[in-house]
Amino acid sequence: MQRRAIYLVLAMSLAVGAIFFSLAHGNAAAPIKPSIAPLPSFSPEPLPPAIIVVDVAGKVLHPGIYRLPQGSRAVDAIKAAGKQLKGVSLTDINLAEVLTDGEQIIVGAPAVSTSISKSKKAGAAKGKITSGTININTATVVQFEQLPGIGAVMAARIFAYRTAHGAFATINDLTKVSGMGKSKFANLKSFVRI
Length: 194
Known about the structure:
Elements: H1 2-28, E1 51-58, E2 64-69, H2 74-80, E3 104-107, E4 134-135, H3 141-145, H4 152-165, H5 182-188, E5 192-193
Parallel strand pairs: 1-3, 4-5
Antiparallel strand pairs: 1-2
């Protein structure tokens, strides 16, 4: 009986030893990791700057169509066209205006006529334009006042609207200005342009 007990203890010791031996060798062996090649780094190519196309006309050295980076100002377009001709004033152009695609800048445009016909058939008030057009995206408050039916208050409203909302897309956008009724717009629409 004693002999059986000794064999049993010896067998159990061998079994426990074998378990510890296999665990020790299992932990000591470094785990095998799958080999993964590093992913190539992705660096996107920088996008080219957005380009706008503007028309520079009038009294510049090289009038024509110019491609400029988006965010360019009127002064940049005039420089691209070779600058204004000698003696031409730029005071009627907002040189700091940010240009939009498809815009036209006229340098040294003829002054808008403010003469009144002798017959007064046009019914124009003193100092109001009777021929020519003004660009509503570059006009000053004083130029807006020259439009038929537009006084100082409405001229200031148009200018403030343009400043707050950006350039007018069409001349019909003038009707979005507070106080610009259909009849008032009908009287001045032939004297404005984009």
